Amino acid sequence: MNVRALALLLPLGLASLPANAFDLVELETRLTTPEQMQGHFRQLHWLAEPEVRLHSQGRFLYQRDRQLIWLFTSPNRQVLTFTPGQVAYGPTADAKDVDTDIEALLPERDSFQRHLGDLIGGHFSALAEDYRLDLSGDSDAWQVSLYPRALGMELPLTTLTLTGGERVKRLDMAISSGDTLTIRLTDAEEVVNEGLVHWLVDWLGNEPATSGQTPATTTTGDDASHSAVEQEEETGSEEDAPQKDEASLSP
Fold first, then answer.
1. Beta strands 86-89 and 168-175: pairing type?
2. Assembly and interactions (predicted)?
């Protein structure tokens, strides 16, 4: 076989190989390896109808196959605990304000709350039943787009998009009404100290909510700087920030 013939056949042989060895199975294996993970989050929720931006931030603790604790530290203190199939509210939640608060912070929660833990943990095999998943990018910078399979979910929810690298870094949700929700995860790290996990569960789920006071760890110089930088990067100038009545989700 001459060199010219080999040159013609070589592209055909390469075409039979996988174009990208990086797939959802490999990505899920990586993302679901940590049993427990903690970090910070920031949420930006755009309400199209009244044209209002809602900003919130806090900390989270993820325990695979068990629960996701979502502690809002601003604009109001609220604790949510997501377990398979349900969401529980913190001990200070006022029943008359719960629906208003959580609808604003986590829109379309009936269909979304069941999946938040799996989304944060990268549990794609569990999500595949309700969504069609499309992976793009590579192992260092990837994006997974999730399209609802059921017609009932397509009405309020258009798409979910996860973006990340070593861990999930960002979640974007688009709703058919024009509303959008962006969640950014920062400082996410695996928790390997079991004793620390028990302390975090107690601190996130009980102590801050019952005391009604911000723990000292959230008012240090490092955390204040961290919040200020993220505020500037993600929300822009003060003109873009919601007014007091817009951001006030509960009395």
1. unpaired
2. Monomer.
